[in-house]
Design goal:
With about 625 residues, this protein is an alpha/beta fold. It is built from 19 helices and 27 strands. Bound molecules: 6-O-phosphono-alpha-D-glucopyranose. The site of 6-O-phosphono-alpha-D-glucopyranose (G6P) has 15 residues, from α9.
Length: about 625
């Protein structure tokens, strides 16, 4: 969703702002803008609906000069995606500019009060309220001759006074026309990171804009506010006052967030999977003890041994990974697992026993529903752990412990490499808990061997790309698809259907293959392809019978099978052969051709693969 950047230092701010906004495009947006303060003390604002290219064109005609500035990509919540509703918003008589992520719930009340004070609103947004409110608070502060010598105390006091009146969530950056050397950033429930460079500071809503600019970063926590000039950074907590900040090393490089030779981030990330899966496993397989090991599971061995039940909660693709985890943990560790949509769990009040372990699964670590569900469970005294990709994200900060995916930045809106890393980590968790209970040493060793071969098997599945592209062009005009699989491959069917929907806008449904008879079979006709997940395994014959049922109704069939499967080839219209793996790893291999199929179909239909309509990479509102 929305993205924020800010800069103060010796360079032209607009250069970083535009490059940073480009790096944030992946989050999903419908308008963008920048505000700078020129050397003559003018507050210059440029903003426009549509893509960043339009903003750049506007800046080419009418530049935004200055060494301090803020920028924003907006994903509309309050008010349509128009030029006027785009951020930054100015407060007072052009005295300050604000860029905001999050939602202000009491904006209507504040707006009425500020209107009565004489403020005139130019937009339908909740953010403009913040801008005028800070201006109003600023007017009540005592005048100070030398703001820098006074540590910008009146500015900080005005911002703090305004923040105290806001209900909702915010990540905010503010610049002030009359104090062109200082920027204030503040956070409550919406992430903000400060980048520390030589004689310069950056602000961004996630780390990707900073890669290549600085590798020193400070994560702001909720209720913290940062006062930034080119050569100073002070962090102030609402309750604790001035606090010491820790500088962390940013572990992503510019190459990680660049496209390289690929046409799209999604394709790049699909092809990164052998490496990202290797990274998920690195140092986490204990050959001597035939088990897995994780540094971040903060519970004691005694607590872990007592775990009797798992609850896995997530949204979107991460929820599908949780479903895969359910099959893996139940079959390898023989412990019951429940998978909950985070958006449902947060308002349900399910009875959870003392020995229930709750995992939030998330790529971004920022999904509002997942964060809220974890908070709710934590409030009730349950330890909550996270399986999460983004270091320093809100969920990483709030969970009691967890396991990082180490997949590197995922830029494509449709999640690919995060899914397979999540499934790999869940397989290792299943091994770990299995070894705490009934799994033998030999069984553990065999599972480790299977895991270690997984990256090569995934590479084998990637080698189908040309064949999948051919199949994609054959079916790219179809408007409905079914995805069918059973057991471990039922979640794969759901995920395959979601990928196609997300980026090609084709209606697709995933079903347990046998369930297809109870309704979806009515959809089958000569223009509705069914994608069957049909690897060797205990339910092969059953799924084959379902395939026959589709063929009997003249439905086209694309079958994902194990290499060398002649039986399926004789029946299906198109066959994609992937390497055989044990059942608990099948989703990780079988999903690869489905990712490629949705990618190639979307490209064939001329869709904007990395920025699909209406979607956001990280859904930070409820
Ligand atoms: C959004 C994204 C999906 C993602 C879901 C959950 O809807 O578009 O790709 O699966 O959020 O995100 P998370 O970061 O929590 O995994």
């Amino acid at each position: 969703m929305c993205g924020i950047v800010g800069y103060v230092g010796p360079k032209e701010a607009a250069e970083f702002l535009i490059s940073g906004l480009r790096r944030l495009e992946y989050r999903g947006y419908d308008s963008s803008g920048v505000a700078t303060i020129s050397l003559e003390g003018r507050l210059v604002v440029a903003k426009t609906s549509g893509r960043i290219e339009r903003l750049e064109a506007r800046l080419a005609d009418s530049p935004a000069p200055g060494h301090i500035g803020i920028g924003h990509t907006r994903w509309a919540t309050h008010g349509a995606p128009t030029d006027g509703n785009a951020h930054p918003h100015v407060g007072g008589e052009n005295t300050l500019a604000v860029a905001h992520n999050g939602v202000i719930e009491n904006f209507q009340t504040l707006k009425s009060r500020l209107t009565a004070e004489g403020y005139q609103f130019q937009s339908a947004t909740d953010t403009e309220v913040i801008a005028h409110l800070i201006d109003s608070c600023l007017k009540r502060q005592p005048a100070v001759d030398d703001m820098a010598a006074a540590d910008y105390r009146p500015l900080v006091a005005a911002v703090q006074e305004a923040l105290a009146q806001l209900q909702g969530t915010y990540g905010l950056v503010i610049v002030f026309r009359d104090w062109p050397d200082v920027m204030i950033a503040a956070r409550l429930g919406s992430p903000l990171i400060v980048g520390v460079g030589p004689e310069e500071h950056y602000v961004a809503s996630d780390a990707s804009p900073l890669a290549g600019y600085t590798d020193k970063i400070v994560y702001l926590a909720d209720h913290e506010l940062a006062v930034l000039t080119c050569d100073s950074l002070r962090v102030i907590h609402r309750d604790q006052g001035h606090i010491r900040h820790n500088i962390h090393v940013l572990d992503i490089e510019a190459g990680d967030v660049d496209l390289g030779t690929y046409d799209h981030y999604m394709l790049k990330e699909i092809f990164e999977q052998p490496e990202t899966i290797r990274n998920a496993m690195r140092g986490r397989l204990d050959h001597d003890a035939a088990t897995a090991k994780f540094g971040g599971l903060t519970l004691t061995p005694r607590q872990l041994r007592r775990v009797e039940r798992f609850v896995l909660t997530a949204c979107g693709t991460s929820w599908h990974a949780a479903l895969v985890g359910e099959y893996q943990i139940e079959s390898l560790a023989r412990l019951p697992v429940e998978v909950e949509y985070a958006s449902e769990l947060r308002y349900r009040n399910p009875p959870l026993g003392n020995n229930t372990l709750l995992f939030g699964i998330t790529q971004s670590g920022e999904t509002a529903d997942t964060l809220a569900a974890l908070r709710e469970m934590k409030r009730k005294g349950h330890p909550v752990l996270a399986i999460n990709n983004v270091v320093g994200s809100s969920i990483a900060q709030e969970a009691d412990g967890g396991i990082y995916l180490r997949a590197g930045p995922e830029i494509g809106v449709a999640s690919t490499k995060a899914f397979t890393s999540q499934c790999t980590i869940l397989a290792m968790l299943a091994l770990y808990f299995g070894r705490l209970h009934h799994l033998s040493y030999h069984a553990g060793t065999r599972i480790i061997e299977e895991l270690m071969e997984l990256p090569d098997k995934v590479q084998g599945a990637l080698d189908t790309s040309d064949e999948v592209k051919r199949i994609a062009s054959k079916y790219a005009d179809c408007n409905n698809f079914l995805y069918l699989g059973r057991q471990f491959n039922f979640p794969t069917a759901l995920e395959g259907a979601l990928k196609l929907k997300e980026i090609s806008y084709i209606h697709a449904e995933g079903y347990p293959a046998a369930e297809m008879k109870h309704g979806p079979i009515a959809l089958v006709d000569g223009h509705t392809p069914s994608v069957f997940l049909l690897p060797h395994g205990p339910v092969y014959d059953k799924v084959m019978a379902n395939l026959q049922e589709i063929k009997a109704r003249r439905g086209p069939v694309i079958a994902v099978v194990c290499q060398g499967d002649t039986e399926a080839a004789a029946l299906a219209d198109d066959v994609i052969e992937v390497p055989a793996v044990e059942e608990f790893l099948q989703p990780i291999v079988s999903i690869i051709p489905l990712q490629l199929l949705s990618y190639h179909i979307a490209v064939a239909r001329g869709c904007d693969v990395d920025k699909p309509r209406n979607l956001a990479k990280s859904v930070t509102v409820e």
